[in-house]
């Protein structure tokens, strides 16, 4: 059977199911709909961030492109990235692993090795979980908590016209790496692209800098591709977003690999996803200060466009000054597309 | 292949992987190993409880005995029960649902109806989740947060010799209901037993009373059967536990159904599980006060035994005064037993 759009379905199943005053009585500052939920903490100075992300065998990963430890690493990374996308500091994780009979204990051990490798790298304490059986496929679901100073969580809805759009790193690398792994006839991808696919790093320090120094107005991580994530900010904020093709950061190895494949890197950059760089907006007046702060922190920071008034949407301004509408598409599980970088 | 004991494996994958001083730097008061994790909150007056529980189609539930809404209800209930088993107040939930192509949107909608029905009943705000595809089976993983007054979380390890053992409700009903549903040749089970299997209620108010009034010394919810949960307390606390057969509360409908089936209710009560009553210990000196407090709150409270010094273990004292060792068994997914009421 054909499923309608995933997000519309999930909205129908969850939206408006609990009253605003009830949610507020439970300390809920931001519920379903952003990268993470935000809940008040009794002390009042910080807020808690909570997020969960799942990966299913055959849908989100395939053994042809990901080792078992990579699956664990990426499951943890994608959740930590949601915390980064709010400007928060990740703190704790709980892990559900449903293990089919075909997985040996050694494979599950490798999965845990990957989970811990990513958690350790980002200072996340694994404090609980549920390891249980499944009949057919491995399913892993990771919950991560984080903290942010009260009122400083950076939502998707914070953009307004006249702001600058930034990226915290080059994009498209994971998608290019996946392409190379899935197409044996294509040139062999360099290790850096394969690693981008298998061991993506969430941009936690960049997110923290944006919230702690107060620069971030809107923020999203690029789990589903720049096009999709930019659209989410545009729609949540009610703004248009113009990306300048010339200013989008193209990593050298991506450009070289795209050339060898006879492809343009732009498709991977717009629709690839799973790089976990952050996309967001800052006030135009903060441009110089934000650039300096990122430079001083030793973190990449690329200004790639502006927000404009008008109906929500995303446009690409080409080198010749032409504005091309960017399609609102990313990966949609329920359409049965490939789950990785698609 | 044969899997070793589930808990031993999970311990091997997780124990000692992160240093105590690192966990403590992340505010972790209690990590992996109890019903929930306990983490410090910046304010200091309360602590956060965090737990996750998963259910997989064909392993933890079967369409023959559970409607889709029941699956959602039970997934939420089992997680809330973990909060109750720490003496906490459940507050928030995040829900992962991996939906196979065979499930229609109407079925997933029913699953969410069950999730919300249980969340609403226990005052839990659903604040996030991940709904995604799976290839074969439905998998649902629920994360629940709760709060408890700092230092008041009731662990499994708090029992010491000479305490009284209590139950907060009759047990074995869910297992009897499941038995009736799985055995068409057996007498039809009464609705109350079927409901106990499909819509178990966590004992949140009892857990809160135990922590807020300071009675609870050790506490566990009976998700895996009284025998298994009593053993967990005995081992975590280093005590023996003697249960008096005559004092174990047998619900009238359970006794009647067991008679009609020509079975003893005791097996369901000791090894059944999924009733979500609480088992725990109080100081002997608190017996009268605790009884009064439960009576005033309108909550069941049964004193069923004592803790004794000596090697950890659980014994059943029969009507004739004989002590019989209670086997340490409950449901173990990795042995491929039936997941329900074990």
User: What value does the Rg of chain A take, in angstroms?
Assistant: 20 Å
Fraction of residues in H or I helices of chain A: 25-40%
Largest interface here, residues on each chain? A-B, 77 and 78 residues
Neighbour order of strands in the largest sheet of chain A: 8-10-7-11-9-12-13
CATH topology of the largest domain in chain A: Phosphoribosyl-aminoimidazole Synthetase, Chain A, domain 2
Count of DSSP strands of chain A: 13
Question: How confident overall, as mean pLDDT of chain A?
Answer: 92
Biggest beta sheet attributes of chain A: 7 strands, mixed
What's the quaternary structure here?
A: homodimer
Percent strand of chain A: 15-25%
State the secondary-structure class of chain A: alpha+beta
Characterization of the model:
Two copies of one chain form a homodimer. The first copy, chain A, has 342 residues and is an alpha+beta fold. Chain A folds into two domains: 6-149, 60s Ribosomal Protein L30, Chain: A; 156-335, PurM-like C-terminal domain (Phosphoribosyl-aminoimidazole Synthetase, Chain A, domain 2), CATH 3.90.650.10. Chain A is 34% helix and 25% strand. Chain A has helices spanning 6-14, 20-25, 68-84, 105-121, 173-182, 191-198, 204-212, 226-237, 252-261, 265-271, 287-297; strands at 28-30, 37-40, 46-56, 89-99, 125-133, 139-149, 164-167, 216-221, 240-244, 278-282, 302-308, 313-317, 323-325. In chain A, the strands form two sheets. In chain A, strands 8-10-7-11-9-12-13 form a seven-stranded mixed beta sheet. In chain A, a hairpin with a 5-residue loop joins β12 (313-317) and β13 (323-325). In chain A, α3 (68-84) runs parallel beside α4 (105-121). At the A-B interface, α1, β3, β4, α4 and β5 of A face α1, β3, β4, α4 and β5 of B.
């Amino acid at each position: 059977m054909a499923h309608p759009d995933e997000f519309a379905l999930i909205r129908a199943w969850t939206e408006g199911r609990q009253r605003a005053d009830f949610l507020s009585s439970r300390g809920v500052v931001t519920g379903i709909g952003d990268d993470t939920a935000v809940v008040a903490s009794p002390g009042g100075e910080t807020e808690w961030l909570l997020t969960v992300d799942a990966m299913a065998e055959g849908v989100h990963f395939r053994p042809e492109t990901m080792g078992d430890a990579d699956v664990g690493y990426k499951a943890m990374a994608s959740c930590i990235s949601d915390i980064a996308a709010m400007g928060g500091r990740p703190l704790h994780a709980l892990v559900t692993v449903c293990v089919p009979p075909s997985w040996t204990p050694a494979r599950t051990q490798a999965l845990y090795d990957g989970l811990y490798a990513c958690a350790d790298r980002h200072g996340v304490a694994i404090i609980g979980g549920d390891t249980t059986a499944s009949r057919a496929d491995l399913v892993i679901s990771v919950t991560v908590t984080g903290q942010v100073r009260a009122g400083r969580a950076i939502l998707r809805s914070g953009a307004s016209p006249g702001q600058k759009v930034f990226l915290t790193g080059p994009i498209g690398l994971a998608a290019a790496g996946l392409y190379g792994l899935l197409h044996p006839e294509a040139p062999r991808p360099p290790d850096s692209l394969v690693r981008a696919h298998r061991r993506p790093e969430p941009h936690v320090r960049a997110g923290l800098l944006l919230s702690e120094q107060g620069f971030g107005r809107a923020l999203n991580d690029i789990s589903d591709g720049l096009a999709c994530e930019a659209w989410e900010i545009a729609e949540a904020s009610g703004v248009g977003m113009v990306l300048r093709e010339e200013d989008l950061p193209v990593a050298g190895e991506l450009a070289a690999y795209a050339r060898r494949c006879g492809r343009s890197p732009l498709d991977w950059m717009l629709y690839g996803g799973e790089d976990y760089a952050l996309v967001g907006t800052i006030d135009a007046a903060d441009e110089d200060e934000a650039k300096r702060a990122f430079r001083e922190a030793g973190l990449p920071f690329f200004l790639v466009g502006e927000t404009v008034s008008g109906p929500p949407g995303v446009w690409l301004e080409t080198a010749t000054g032409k504005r091309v509408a960017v399609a609102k598409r990313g990966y949609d599980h329920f359409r049965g597309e490939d789950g990785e970088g698609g």
